[in-house]
Amino acid sequence: MKVSNRIAGLTGGGSDGWDVFYKARAMMADGVDVTELTIGEHDIRTDPSILDAMDRSARAGHTGYASVPGTPALRDAIAARVEARTGVKTTRDNVLITPGGQSALFTAHHAVCDEGDIALYCDPFYTTYPGTIRGVGAQPRAVPCRPEAAFQPRFADIAAKRDYAVSILVNTPNNPTGVVYDEQTVEGIARACIEYDMWCISDEVYDTQVWSGTHLSPRALPGMAERTLVVGSMSKSHAMTGSRVGWIVGPQEVIAHAINLATHITYGVPGYIQDAALFALTAGPELEDRVGAPFAKRRDLAHEILAGQNAVRLVPNAGAMYLMLDVRDTGLSGEAFALALLHQERIAVMPGESFGEAAAGHVRVAMTVEDARFEDALRRIVAFAGTKSA
Ligand code: PMP
């Protein structure tokens, strides 16, 4: 039987650059001791106090269907959080709770793209972006960001690719680069959205993980609240990746439609998960700080190790749990570098090419193993690159 063209074409075909990842997994399954720096997931688990809140809620009976838009209390908490970050009046009517940020990305594109519409996304990109856009029947179009501009999507980069696009998907702090968009970038995004009448879908799932500079949401800029859909999640901020809870914040009318969509796809997020998220969000900054602290520390370690060498160059890294290393001086592609590193040093990193063409000749290092192992791996990556450099 034939499946739909839409679902068969979702991933776009071609090599997805995950070769290194699968090879590393196969080596580990064979008992090889691989230092695994490919995956964007904390090396700590959800805090026990959050699990206790989840347990209390479930035992109190919150195991039935929850309200589809989200519990009023959690929607209020997200509204307050996003209002504090953007300075834009936000109420629960601007919020839909979703099963994670990924579902929010899909819902946001569904809400603003018609069949065949062009939807922009910035390259390098988080791997699901083009498939998410194809999944709603739209056409993904990459906006290449230049390594010379530290992968910041500037106005001119967007203008060059706009082609009557209906939306642009941006991501700060960024996966895979670890870059936090500066003011010039966010202003350029806002200018492009307003001049070209585009929606801005702003993926801010790493907004609590900023190690230098400040996070600026495009929604905060004049004229942007009515055309911005902010995507957020508890996954990264509270090490709750498996709980699947996130949100979209946007204009009330769009959220009303998105709630209709949720009724037909997810029928909401479990009440006990939402209660746990509410507990986590209202527990004060200490929980969030504890989740982010290991990455901040490893980032400092990385800056120390990478100073005073030129075998690899660090893309200016200010947030999230990743480092992007420019390995072009070795003469190798990111993929060739990552494969050789895996075989010689038993260290697994992601080739830049798996995140788009703009990151060719780079590798992404996830700071997601304990400090001593991370430090040792990074020193060996630098030494390995040194042996390859011309
Ligand atoms: N956006 C970005 C940039 C991500 O890195 C991820 C997860 N790796 C997500 C969205 C989706 O996260 P989740 O669905 O767990 O909230």
UniProtKB/TrEMBL annotation:
Instruction: Name the coenzymes or cofactors required.
Output: pyridoxal 5'-phosphate
Q: Where is the Aminotransferase class I/classII large domain?
A: 33-381
Reaction catalysed by this enzyme = L-aspartate + 2-oxoglutarate = oxaloacetate + L-glutamate
The record's listing under Pfam families reads: Aminotran_1_2 (PF00155)
Q: Which GO terms describe its molecular function?
A: L-aspartate:2-oxoglutarate aminotransferase activity; pyridoxal phosphate binding
Q: Which InterPro entries match?
A: Aminotransferase_I/II_large (IPR004839), AspAT/PAT-like (IPR050596), NHTrfase_class1_PyrdxlP-BS (IPR004838), PyrdxlP-dep_Trfase (IPR015424), PyrdxlP-dep_Trfase_major (IPR015421)
EC code(s) of this entry: 2.6.1.-
Which keywords are on file for this protein? Aminotransferase, Pyridoxal phosphate, Pyruvate, Transferase
Q: Which GO terms describe its biological process?
A: amino acid metabolic process
Reading the lineage from the top rank, the first entry is: Bacteria
- What does the sequence similarity comment in the record state about its family? Belongs to the class-I pyridoxal-phosphate-dependent aminotransferase family.
This one is known as Aminotransferase
- Species: Litoreibacter ponti
